[in-house]
Write a structure and sequence with these properties.
single chain; mainly alpha; five-stranded parallel β-sheet; three-stranded antiparallel β-sheet; 8 strands
Length: 794
């Protein structure tokens, strides 16, 4: 049961002007046209990432399966490189293959461009990734950025040089021909509105850009100083600084030290508080929000052992906010939009500079990293507590945005003496993220490391063992998964921990179900559901106990009991406004109705399930539900729809496991749907509809939109194929008031009555009255039928 909120692995949106690099753009396009691996090399701050994004954008139309970006700057563990690539490609592998082999298998038939950014600190792993893709696929091309080459024989290099600068004493009548000058003018105009190159300042600007060796980052940092200095003053102060560094002529400064000198200069122009915040923020990988910045930089334990002169120690929240504002103004921090508001990021070069500064302050780096880890643990725990509730979409988006910092926190814990136990606690707290959000391989990676580092019999170990067992089962390692879950259960019992014992029992039961031991699984889940949730047990897992009980009942032909179980579980999910477990309850309810051959009810529930799965980007659950909808369409004679859904399902499964986990039942049902649809439509008609469905698979949202909103073709076919009318069909042509439509939309989103009341700022009794009137108007029996009606209206 996995999925994930989509992360931004598309080409970045440009927020500032891109200066002319026509020669490099043309060279990059030409190289990508004739070779499959191009590496942009050059010093830090020269603009490799920006240029690579431009090249990729220029050629994207030649790649039918698109362009995706693999961000590596926040990654330190080489083992995660193929997982990061799969993540960028929205692949959610649940097969038993090694990660790199699985990635190659998923991409074998695709034609796409992979932009792998910031490879220099992970060169062997990046070279292995590139070699595997080059040798194992024919349609994948790779554009990499790195300070050093990958070292493959197939690699073609594009040396990204600093921007050309004219002779300050030469002819400057056409300065627009020099991108270094254009870059300075553009960035200066951003802080001094109306600034432009003139005959009076061209020489000074050219001299300044030459002092900075035409390095784009250095030029941008200098341009920010135009808030308080004019060009002449900038040049004079830069000359003075360079003379101090070189003991004489600025020309003696080696080119490779130019950027360091420019960053040093920017650092010295920060006040002491900004310098300290810059250093502490450098332990953060990727982007971060203000809360995270405050947690890492402030607090009672954040007093530096040796603070810069003038720094406030300890820093408070308002100190951090002021410092962050100043660092944004100085272009040290970049500001970007995130899923829950504004986020910030240190450019890789400036982050490494900050780390160097942090390490000069005794005890500061481990303290900052510990605060970062503790904050990630605090945030993960808050997300886990809220997981069985209405905020799942926001939780998934937040954790995805924090992914690099979660990895950094885990790595610190598992590589630092005395810190492994919090690392195991963090890996265990994120169980729902690894399981529900499509990251079983990465979760297993961290849990294996954390369990090895924490052999003592603790509650954290009991939790880690059952989670590792669950994730092992998700990747076909059922035998190992069952052993881990049993070890977890035994340890939890020794510790007298009823909650962790119940969690381990769920895993034992679900693996028993996966192994097709239906009678044993049925007894197991009947006992768990009858007992009810124990104190401390997560309601998500108790909800899944009910899902698996319904599954066992359905497979054993006891459909009516399965429906009863699902209805109870659905009411529990609705009370809490929960969506992820709810989507599995609805899918199981649809399966139970297929056993009863009640195709209308099965279709309603499956569509609702698919819509909820999209909300939390549950890719695996979506694939399962598409298969189910294809079967329902086949049974009702909607053969063209069935063929489209089969194409969409196959494309979705290709990113998970083409073999559908080796499930004989899933494969048999799929073959039957294809055979019947092909016979009804004829081979050409089937192929056209099937390919249409595969084309929908380019985006899960588009696939779900078709599957949810495309109507079954004719109601008469249901009777012909053995369907029953079941519960009343939601009425059409009904008028709801504006407020009733608002309430119906919130019902369709899965909100309970109290949550609707809170959202609309009305009394709960008022919300209940609206829901009752909507049910009456539509002739519906339950809330899922309201959701189906709303979907049909849209």
């Amino acid at each position: 049961m996995g999925g994930s909120a989509p992360r931004d692995h598309q080409l970045p949106v440009e927020t500032t002007t891109f200066v002319d690099r026509r020669g490099e753009l043309a060279a990059g396009r030409e190289l990508l046209a004739r070779t499959r691996l191009v590496t942009l090399t050059g010093p830090g701050g020269v603009g490799k990432t920006r240029l690579a994004a431009r090249i990729a954008g220029a050629v994207r139309r030649t790649f039918p399966d698109g362009v995706r970006v693999v961000h590596l700057s926040g990654l330190d563990d080489p083992a995660l490189v193929p997982l990061a690539a799969a993540d960028a490609l929205d692949l959610h592998d649940h097969s038993a293959q090694p990660p790199l082999q699985a990635l190659v298998e998923r991409l074998r038939d695709r034609r796409l461009l992979l932009l792998v950014d910031n490879c220099e600190h992970l060169l062997p792993a990046c070279a292995e990734l590139a070699a595997a893709l080059l040798h194992g696929t024919t349609g994948v091309r790779i554009l990499a950025t790195s300070r050093h080459r990958l070292g493959l024989t197939e690699e073609h290099l594009l040396d990204v040089r600093p921007l050309p600068v004219p002779d300050p004493d030469g002819d400057l009548t056409t300065p627009e021909g020099y991108p270094a000058l254009a870059l300075f003018a553009d960035r200066a105009a951003a802080v001094v509105p109306g600034f432009r190159l003139t005959a009076a300042n061209r020489g000074a600007v050219a001299r300044l850009c030459r002092r900075l060796d035409g390095l784009p980052l250095a030029i941008e940092l200098a341009a920010v100083r135009m808030r308080v200095l004019d060009v002449g003053q900038l040049l004079d102060r830069l000359d003075d600084r360079y003379r101090l560094l070189t003991g004489g002529s600025p020309a003696a400064l080696p080119r490779h030290q130019t950027l360091r000198a420019a960053v040093d200069w920017s650092h010295e122009l920060c006040d002491a508080r900004e310098q300290l915040v810059w250093a502490r923020l450098s332990v953060l990988a990727g982007s971060f929000d203000l809360e995270t910045a405050e947690a890492v930089c402030a607090g009672e334990d954040a007093a530096p052992a040796e603070a810069p002169v003038g720094a406030t120690a300890p820093l408070r929240g308002y100190d951090v906010l002021d410092a962050v504002t100043g660092l944004v103004d100085k272009s040290v921090l970049s500001r970007e939009s995130g899923p829950d508001g504004i986020r910030y990021r240190l450019l890789d070069t400036l982050r490494h500079y900050g780390l160097d500064r942090l390490r000069r302050l005794p005890g500061e780096e481990p303290a900052a990293r510990r605060r970062q880890r503790d904050w990630m643990l605090h945030r993960a725990a808050a997300c886990e507590r809220a997981w069985f509730g209405p905020g799942q979409r926001e939780i998934v988006a937040r954790l995805r945005a924090d992914q690099d910092n979660l990895r950094t926190a885990l790595d610190f814990s598992l590589t630092t003496p005395g810190e492994p136990l919090p690392g195991l606690r963090l890996a265990g707290t994120l169980w729902f993220y690894w399981h529900a959000c499509g990251a079983p391989r990465e979760g297993r990676h961290w849990l294996d490391r954390a369990l090895a580092a924490n052999p003592d019999p603790t509650r954290e170990r009991a939790r880690g063992l059952w989670i590792a067992g669950l994730l092992a089962a998700a990747t076909h390692d059922l035998t190992a998964g069952l052993a881990l879950a049993r070890d977890a259960h035994a340890l939890a019992q020794d510790l007298d921990d009823a909650a962790e014992a119940a969690h381990a029992e769920y895993v034992i039961g679900v693996i028993t179900l996966f192994m097709d031991d239906l009678p044993t699984a049925l007894k197991h889940f009947e006992a768990s559901v009858l007992r009810g949730p124990v104190p401390g047990q997560h309601l998500s897992l108790y909800g899944l106990d009910q899902v698996e009980l319904a599954c066992a009942l359905g497979f054993l032909g006891e459909a009516e009991r399965a429906v009863e179980v699902c209805e109870r579980a659905r009411r529990m999910c609705e009370r809490h406004g929960e969506e992820w477990v709810h989507s599995y309850v609805l899918r199981m309810l649809a399966l139970a109705h297929t056993v009863q051959r009640d195709w209308q009810q099965a279709d309603h529930h499956a569509r609702h399930a698919l819509r909820l799965k999209l909300a939390v980007h549950d890719v695996t659950g979506s694939a399962l539900t598409l298969d189910l909808l294809a079967r329902i369409a086949t049974e009702t004679g909607a053969h063209e729809r069935a063929a489209v859904l089969l194409g969409a399902a196959d494309h979705t499964w290709a990113g998970i496991d083409r073999d559908r986990w080796g499930s004989a039942a899933l494969k048999a049902t799929r073959r039957d749907s294809e055979t019947r649809s092909r016979e009804a439509l004829g081979p050409p008609g089937f192929r056209r509809a099937y390919e249409r469905g595969r084309g929908l698979g380019a985006g899960l949202a588009e696939t779900v939109d078709y599957a949810v909103h495309d109507a079954l073709h004719d109601t008469g076919s249901r009777a012909v194929n053995g369907g029953r009318s079941g519960s009343p069909r939601p009425a059409t042509g009904i008028h709801l008031t504006r407020r009733e439509r608002e309430v119906a939309e919130l019902v369709a989103q899965g909100l309970a009555n109290q949550q609707i009341a809170d959202r609309l700022i009305i009394a709960r009794r008022t919300a209940e009255g609206h829901v009752e009137r909507i049910l009456g108007k539509l002739g519906c029996n339950n809330r899922s039928q309201i959701a189906a009606w709303m979907a049909a209206q849209r």
